[in-house]
Fold each of these.
Amino acid sequence: MFPHRSLDSLLPVVEDAVDRLLDQFTEDLHQGPVDFHALVSEELPVITIGKWMALPSSDYGLLRTLTHDQVFSQELFPTASQLARSDAATTQMRHYFIELIRERRERPGDDLVSSWLRTWDACEPDRDLADEAVHSLALFMILAALETTSHVLSSAVRLLLEHPSQMDRLGHHPELIPDAVEEVLRYDAPIHMISRVAPADTQLGAVLVPDGQMVQLMVGAAHHDPDQFPNPHLFDIRRRSPHLAFGAGIHYCLGNALARLEVTALLRSLLSSPVRPRLSAPVQWAPRVAFRRITSLQLTHS
Ligand code: HEM
């Protein structure tokens, strides 16, 4: 689905977007505190995916808002009004991608959606079924990519600002950035809950999970399990421990390399810039369990 060639071609897109967003951030800092989350973290993932799928930039805001609403349905205890917002967002996104596929059928390009259509046409003679498959893929990709990556971008910046000695260490040793990214993903996994249904009676440790029973795997708790991670509440970029932030097994996240690339590019650029921001207000969070979401990360000049 994501050929390696695509990732290579996305690197300049990501680096260019990071540079532009951080230039804007630096400029805005002269005027006072800036919400890094809104200005940078919410923008970079939608620019990256938007360019890859060749979506009009005027649609980025709409797609971000619809994604925020849609993921309520994946929460542990959504309210009735949250479910209604999620349903409405799903319907709107369905229409959006049906229209996009119609356009790409008329004017195919070298974008991701056109290439998926070519792939499906080669193996699925029924064009409606091919369209349906590509439609689901496009929709899922937006949902999978935006909230998660936005969160980890802000989370990385926040954790490093809260741990200045580790920030300094990274400044002197940028080769440690990939280790820092993994520790951010362990310490504050963007998805805290992965759902599975038992295909048969299954013994899990001391618990018998009956056939057909849904199980919620609590990733955040697993990442802070002292039997797996010594001193688990310590944020330590030297840890280098494997984690479950991208899941495991056959459903392992297909976008993991892209997400890692975005966070690495952001930290590289931020650490090499002369700007030394600091937190200017407590971080604001959406009250959620499954999809972690920072809603505001106010930064100012040191
Ligand atoms: C930090 C960012 C991200 C995190 C934490 C994350 C996390 C995850 C997790 C936990 C799963 C497994 C879900 C399960 O087992 O039920 C998953 C699957 C998936 N992710 Fe991501 N994801 C991220 C970014 C992305 C991006 C950027 C894309 C697309 C470009 C993407 C596309 C996918 C896809 C297509 C799957 C489904 C794989 C399958 O079922 O075979 N993800 N992701």
Amino acid sequence: MFETVEPAPPDKILSLIGLFRDDPRPGKIDLGIGVYRDAQGRTPIMRAVREAERRLYDSEQTKSYLGPGGDPAYCEAVTDVVFGNASPRERICAVQTPGGAGALRILAGLIARVRPDATVWIPDVTWVNHASILADAGLASREYVYYDPVANGVRLDAMLSSLRGAAPGDVVLLHGCCHNPTGASLANADWDEVCELLLARGLVPFVDLAYQGFGDGLDEDAYAVRLFAQRLPEMLLATSNCKNFGIYRERTGCAFVMAGTGTQAANVLGHLLTCARVAYSMPPDHGASIVRIVLGDPALRADWRSELDSMRTRIAGLRVALAAALAARTGSDRYDFLVRHRGMFSLIGVTPAQAERLRGEHGVYVVSDGRINVAGLTEAQIEPFVAALTALR
Ligand SMILES: Cc1ncc(COP(=O)(O)O)c(C=O)c1O
């Protein structure tokens, strides 16, 4: 059975984990894997999460099965955080999933069931897993214009005109905030234009909201989702709590569908549950329980929001400090885009060969497409990183 199996192509992000771990150089810098780190370089367990785990340990009565949709109370709590008051609740169904990636895969499976001939349009640079997940579900994908590597921003007009080429009923994958890997995100006025285009052309948004709270704030980062909820008949939405609760390995996310009517939403829910059932039967509970406990307790919820706010502020501060250090070293403003970008990531503009040199010569790990995790820097690493980067030129 396995004699002819060739090695699978390595994942360009995950393969860095092992390389970094095995690198003996003391000054090595990991800007590859996309996790938040604090000033000491640790990925902390948030205070409210710790407390929720304590309460869970003391109060949990059973570990019996919950069902393919997971915990409805978790889904309800996340619906509040994501949609605020903007949700047409009766038209929305939700299932808990193993992380945002699980939500993306379940929703891709749903599209394959209900609209197998739809093309899913993805940004011309996007998270590496998007195309793979869609292909795995048997869906066709095409790129729309998104990123301008010269101006380091979004090419909004070109994006809109490429989406005008989509057929009615096609699906458009959009990063709800904090675009990964570019960091270049849409402003609210841009979202308004995208929304009107989706409405006019009969396109269905498939929003990936993996970093809510890391851009401009918890509510601010939900602008697009809430706008679509008010203006559009349908939406697919994958959310993650792995990042905004710092519970990466607990695999906690939610797949939402907004349908045209409550009856349609109920019908869709049955298919989402089947997609989950055949893939993994039921999602893991621990992370969802943490989120449910935190969001259900006003004091814990407030503490979580404040810690998340300070994480976001720290990333923004690192962006300013990094841009300033690069300006001082290069005598130019060409890295000022770092301050305009949002979320953990930016493309720093190095080729795969240069990314390889950064690793080999300086022990600086960036993804081969030039993505850096700004949130992976400590203040003390800014100067060595800037020195390594500018030594490439
Ligand atoms: C854009 C995007 N979507 C979804 C995910 C999935 O996150 P998780 O499955 O850890 O919740 C990630 C993780 O890196 C991401 O960057």
